[in-house]
Amino acid sequence: DHHLLRMHLLPEPQVTPVPAAGQQEATGSAEWQQLQLRVHTFTACAVVGLAMLPDKLNPVVRPLMEAARREENTLVQGYAASNIARLLQLCAARSPCPNAKIVKNLCSSVCVDPLLTPSAACPVPPASTPAIQESSK
């Protein structure tokens, strides 16, 4: 797992043209934000993996949720998702149990993307099958 993650995270050497100054700042900022998200994500994964959860779970839950939502690398995204599942297992015995809130936030983050979730106002029409078309003739 570790070796596979490292292979996918290490950038391959590439020759790229030098961008304009403003574009370079934006790219640098986006890269910095992505790296910062990954550092927080893997720190949270380590905390979950060691089962050393703090009293306040927000510093652990937030980076995992952000990685599940925004991470471009599907391997990292899947790793964060599996750690969310492990976190839910670890929190099952907590009182009060945060699992309902975590699952609710996961569901609402999935439902935000209209490409993944059809609108209730405009549901997907059922596909017509040849058997239905012939029986109506």
Salient structural properties:
single chain; 137 residues; mainly alpha; 6 helices; 64% helix; flat; Mot1 central domain-containing protein; Mot1_central_dom; Mot1
Describe the structure.
- By secondary structure, the protein is mainly alpha-helical.
- The protein has a domain of 83 residues.
- The chain contains 6 helices and no strands.
- It is flat.
- The termini are far apart.
Strands, helices and their partners?
Blueprint: H1 2-9, H2 21-49, H3 58-70, H4 74-91, H5 99-111, H6 130-135
Helix pairs in contact: 2-3, 2-4, 3-4
Protein name: Mot1 central domain-containing protein
Domain Mot1 central: 30-123
Organism: Cirrhinus mrigala (Mrigala)
Determine the fraction of residues in helical runs and give it as a percent range: 55-70%
Please count the helical segments: 6
- Which runs of at least 5 residues are low in confidence (pLDDT < 50)? none
Taken from the alpha-carbon principal axes, the silhouette is flat
Q: Which structural class do the helices and strands define?
A: mainly alpha
- Taken in chain order, the helices and strands follow as HHHHHH
Radius of gyration based on Cα positions: 21 Å
Largest sheet: none
State the total count of DSSP E strands: 0
Strand content: under 5%
- Gap from first CA to last CA: 57 Å
Mean pLDDT: 79
